[in-house]
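Bug #2210: token dump truncated for RNA polymerase-binding protein DksA?
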Amino acid sequence: EIGIRRLEARPTATLCIDCKTLAEIREKQLGS
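Reproduced locally. Full output below:
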């Protein structure tokens, strides 16, 4: 949750990039 809050605090441009990374992390967590 802390990581997500950090993403929300970042600029939109950076957030878009982090959203892709966060999505990949979620997929790995669901896969495991």
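Output looks complete on our side. The radius of gyration is 10 Å. Marking as cannot-reproduce; reopen if the truncation happens again.
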